[in-house]
């Protein structure tokens, strides 16, 4: 007898900010950087 079950996963994808949106953000310390569509600090 085969006990069947399913695995469900949920992936949340955040929209990547544009360069213009990044430049509109206030400055922070340590500084944030915009690298390949991602903001890193």
Write the topology of this structure:
Blueprint: H1 19-24, E1 33-35, E2 38-40
Antiparallel strand pairs: 1-2
Task: Provide a brief overview of the structure.
The chain has one helix and two strands; from the N terminus they run αββ.
Feature tags:
2 strands; elongated; alpha+beta; two-stranded antiparallel ribbon
Explained architecture:
- The structure is a single chain.
- With 41 residues, the protein is α+β, with helices and mostly antiparallel strands.
- 15% of the residues lie in helices and 15% in strands.
- It is built from 1 helix and 2 strands.
- Strands 1-2 form a two-stranded antiparallel ribbon.
- β1 (33-35) and β2 (38-40) form a beta hairpin.
- The longest helix has 6 residues, at 19-24.
- It is elongated and about 55 Å long.
- The model has no long low-confidence stretch (mean pLDDT 84).
Order of helices and strands: HEE
Round the Cα radius of gyration to an integer and report it.
Answer: 19 Å
What is the terminal separation in angstroms?
A: 53 Å
The tally of helices reads 1
What is the strand arrangement across the widest sheet? 1-2
For the biggest sheet, the summary is: 2 strands, antiparallel
Q: Strand fraction band?
A: 5-15%
Structural class: alpha+beta
* Model regions low in confidence, pLDDT < 50 over at least 5 residues: none
């Amino acid at each position: 007898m085969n006990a069947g079950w399913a695995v469900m996963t949920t992936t949340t994808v955040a929209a990547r900010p544009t360069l213009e949106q990044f430049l509109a953000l206030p400055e922070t310390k340590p500084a944030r950087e915009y690298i390949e569509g991602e903001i890193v600090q």
